[in-house]
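As a warm-up, study this chain.
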Amino acid sequence: MPSKPIALYGGAFDPPTLAHQQLARKLLSCGFDEVILMPSQDSTFGKKLSPLFHRLSMCHLLNESHITTSTLDAIHNPHGRTIEALPHYIEQLGHHNFSIVIGSDNANAIDRWYQGRELIQQASFFVFERPGFPLSEAGSWCLKDPHHFEPCSISISSTQVRQAYKEDNIELIKTLLDPKVFNYILLNEDLYS
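Now compare it with the structure written out below.
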C-alpha cells in the first residue's frame, strides 16, 4: 500500500497568520493527507525572529484535523540547511512521500539556500505563488516534475501583522490572525510591541 502524502510546511510563522491557516487547508484539498507546520529555529536569510517557543505555541493553536505542528525542523535544521535535515525528515516520517512547502519568493531564491540546487534534486517541493512574488527564471525549476506550482491569491503576510502591531492598528490585526493567535499575542504583550 502506498504511503499517504504529507506536506512539510516550514517557515518562520512570526506570527502564523490566517494565510498560513488557509494554505494548510488548501494543501489538504490538493491531496495531502496531513500537513505538518514546522516553525524554523532561525531564519535561513538572517532575519531576527521571535522566540521559537512562542511561534511553536501559536502554530499549535492552528492545529486541527490533519494539520499538526512539529519541532522537526527546529531540532534537525537549526541553521536553515534543509538539505542537512532531509535524512531526519525521512527517518521521522518513515517514508519518502512528502513535499516541502514554500512560497514563490523562496522558490525564486533557491540559489541563496544552502545547496539549494542539490536539494531540489533530492526532494519534492510544493510551491505556492505569493502575491507580489511572481516566479522568476530562477524559480522556474518548480514547474517541472516532481515539483508542483500552485497559483494562490491569499495576500496576508506576517510582515503585515508585525507592521500593524508597530502602528497599533488592532482592527487590522484582527482581520489577519485567527482569534486564538490574536488572543495569545494579547496575553504575551511584549511579543510584537
